[in-house]
Amino acid sequence: MVGGSEIFYGSIPVFRGFARLMDPALYARLPDDWTVGVADIVESTKAIAAQRYKAVNMAGAAVVASVTNALDGREFPFVFGGDGASFAISPADLDKAREALAATARWVRDDLDLVLRVALVPMTAIRAAGADVRVARFGPSANLSYAMFSGGGLAYADAAMKRGEFAVDPAPSGTQPDLSGLSCRFEVMPSVRGVILSVLVLPATDADPAAFRKVIEDIVVLVEKSPEAGRPVPASGPPLRWPPQGIEYEARARRGGSLALRRAAVLAFTLWAYTLMRFNIPVGKFVPKNYVRQVVENSDFRKFDDGLRMILDCTPELAAELEQRLVAAAAQGVVRYGLHEQDAAMMTCFTPSVMRADHVHFIDGARGGYASAATVLKTRAA
Q1: CA 94/CA 7 separation, integer angstroms
Q2: What does the angle CA 173 – CA 251 – CA 190 come to, to the nearest 5 degrees?
Q3: Does residue 6 surpass a pLDDT of 90?
Q4: H runs (alpha helix) in 227-344
Q5: Above 60 in pLDDT, residue 143?
Q6: What pairs with residue 252 in β-bridges?
Q7: How far apart are CA 250 and CA 134, in angstroms?
Q8: How far, in Å, CA of 260 to CA of 270, rounded?
Q9: Is-contact 242 274, C-beta < 8 A?
Q10: 176-203 confidence digits (pLDDT tens)
Q11: CA-CA distances (angstroms) from residue 370 to 71, 81, 138, 377?
Q12: Which of 32, 73, 111, 382 is the most buried (most CB within 10 A)?
């Protein structure tokens, strides 16, 4: 059965050119009977201080993977936030999403030793509070699109979740979500320009929307026009080695059998996949060099979800210029921001099928990323 996800979200035109992201005409109002889902890792700052960057990212990506698989691959709007994710779901898909989220929260606790906080907030509650959710679709390549959110509704839902409202409790112990396609086989991607910069820019309280829009547009134009900044994913694709660093997480994400058997199965499969990729051996319709090109094109390194998020490979000089502009905008009461510098980026992949071009690849900083930028923002606002 075709669900509301395809009826609403699939009808939104895909826009190209990230500099257009603040155009209100690109955003469609979320239907009143939909629900917004939000999830994040409790005390992610502590996990990152313990250098558990990959586990934190895996938990955030698992939210997207589990809901996608529960909906049999149907499109729905979502955004990856590093230590969590946000999304919107139709009434027809709500029960499946709730079950998937409960199972994911249990898996994160049992297998990653982290606490995933989850909430499902009705649009009626968001609009009753004076906020809204509007959705756009940005196409980084011809292969797929990513959702962008505006209206303040995701921020309201996140705050409600942290107050303990609209909570989704973890499923009973032993419940395993369907995380098929979730992996993290690529190595970290060192900066080639000097700095991997995690950027988080939110509107200040009571900021003028037009002024906030202009700041975001100016920042995006500065980055896009500068030769000193670019995608953190190398044009030749991320480094790939065997055994992959993320093998333990991929084994734990699999269903069925003992953990030892799952580890063995992942080791065998990743060795086969590594051999195909290393020597560019086509198998059927799978052509390794085409897949790598799609990985680069599909990388999700910039987005908008009531605020601007970017992972950039840039020079220290451009990072300093960005901060100067944000300092000035913050002094004018327009933005709140957090920046975090590190030496590498990392990728977490959701590839339901290598035969299709719409596999998604979530990018974050490899030494704290978005979560550390958010910590800087909160510290500055305190």
Answers
A1: 15
A2: 120
A3: no
A4: 247-253, 259-278, 288-298, 316-331
A5: yes
A6: none
A7: 34
A8: 15
A9: yes
A10: 999 999 998 999 999 999 999 999 999 9
A11: 28, 7, 20, 10
A12: 111
